[in-house]
Amino acid sequence: MKDWKEVLLDRSLPSPIPPPPYSNLEQSFGFLDRENEIKEFLDLINKAVIEHRGFLIFLLGDQGKGKTTFLKYIKENYFYPSKDNSDKLFVSMHFPQELSELDFSFIFTKYIGEIVNSGLIDKLRDRVVYELNSTLGLNLEYTDKNQVIDFLTKVKNLVITLPKNLLKNMEIITFVISSYIYYPEIQSFIDYGEQPNNQFLGLLKHGPNEVSVSKIYLFSKFLRDFMGIKHTVFSIDDFDILERNENVYRTLYKLLMSFRNANLVEEFSIVLSGSVSFYEEFIQSLSQNERQRIENWGYPIFFESLDTKDVLDLIKRSFSNFWMNYNVIPPDNPYGVFSSDSISFLYTYTNKDIRETLRKLYDLINEMRSLGNIVDYSDVKKIISKFKVDKVGLKDVELNYFKNLLIEKVKLFKSSDFINEKLKDAFNKLIKYYESRSISIRAEKEVNINGSFADVLLTVNKINEGMRYEIIFEVKIKDSEVSEEEISSRINLIKGNERRYLYWISRSKLHELDYTDGNDKKRILRDTPLTETEIAYLSYLVHIPEIFGWDKFEDNDLELILKQSGINMDLILNLQAPKEDKPSNIYALFEEILDRFLKEEKIYVLKKTVLREVRGKGFKDFSDEYLMGVLSEVAHQKNLRITDSQIRFDIKKI
């Protein structure tokens, strides 16, 4: 049997992960984990048939959640003509680039297109011809153009003898029969909206909106009588293609209301699919009465991301099939060169976009094959090194990962020495950067001061001002409160020395002390615990050499990461100014802003609105990701609901 590494690197073999595009996960992986959503959707449509009243269904989820695949799967497995015994028809369409193009003429065109291109027109034609032959006592066929025209002529001459159900639908009957010979003209109408100049295709001259509404309604009744089609679903995919402004929201609302008011709702349901944020902004743009109308008729189905366990199972099966197909003894790791942790992280990193996750895994395997070397991607940090674009800010998934990584590492090593080492290196990487500002710095770790050791000692020499002082950084990343003895021993390092300061980098609260010397307390630059966000950035700082190397960072970016880690370099380098702990103040500022919106009884506020206000208050240096992280943390503490783009005050999170 072959070695698994040799087979994995063989460029002549398919990849264990199929190549993109992943337009149909069912086809590529035999996988569709939407049983609950399928049941919810079909229950609504069945209820619409029974009650003779359609629904407005919003299919909501971010890109990559499988909405388009879901709609395709539903159509192919539960609707006529794919399922012969179904009494429901499914018409697929996409939002046009301009919402003004989405009118009833557009919908009528797509309706006809579905009837023709699905093959339903052929079955309908057979039924109609059979009915006419039986009713009129004819025995006509339609195998060529002359026979069709002859048949239509005889029907026209005998029209007075037709029963009412046929007589009132002569325009539709003529179109259905003549579709056999005028297919090119009909297809031009479907593809380009070209209305044919043909006496037998008068149905396609739909004219204004109200005419199209009437023809849609009549055709649905005709399908009910001849084919037993009791309900039709109009599915309009991807409303995110539209601009987000008041005019678009008004136009969409008016279109939906005109559909409902035209009584089409008796025979049809509408499915609109797109992102949650567009739906929320659309609903918020409506008046209370308008919103009530939409909510009484509409029904949102939220597409949550696939469970991580399902994604892991999908990828495990892909590798398992690969080893089996090529007679390989599989490695102990069922995910090949990946791990459950690295795949789970990547999936979350792509905002739980299964297609983007698969694409990245496929690209990594192809890259290995091109290099001819196996690369171990089981470590999450390796995934970050490949795909992180913004090296200054951290996404939510990165914040959680790095925060937990630092805490677990401290527990494992029972020491913060590795933090001290990297903190020292980070300071010293900025020596030349600060020299340009006539400031000399030097960092050392584990410095013996009168028999006690400072975790990190930063010496600052402000050359132009003739000022020299030292900052002692004490690093305590542990669960329990920092004890009175630990605090006292560190205060002793600065006691009576006006040029020595103490800076606590602590995860936990410091035991409260009564300071006998007020000057000692003034020279403690920070004694508040690090926030969750600051812990994550400190961990990121510590792991930069392993992930990227210091040289991948500009000096000002490294300084910013230090600030976001809770180490306020502005304060440290400007000690003659009043003490200002910006990282603490920024949390208070976010609280103040959110409290103000709460008092104003706002339903929601856009995150970018809050960030714009914060930057206007002097916090211009911090990255968007850092500010978003702090905003989410403060909102979480206040028990507010957080969406992709908003902080919501109307619904508290449970």
Automatic annotation (TrEMBL):
InterPro entries (UniProt xref): P-loop_NTPase (IPR027417)
Lineage: Bacteria, Pseudomonadati, Caldisericota/Cryosericota group, Caldisericota, Caldisericia
Name of this protein: Uncharacterized protein
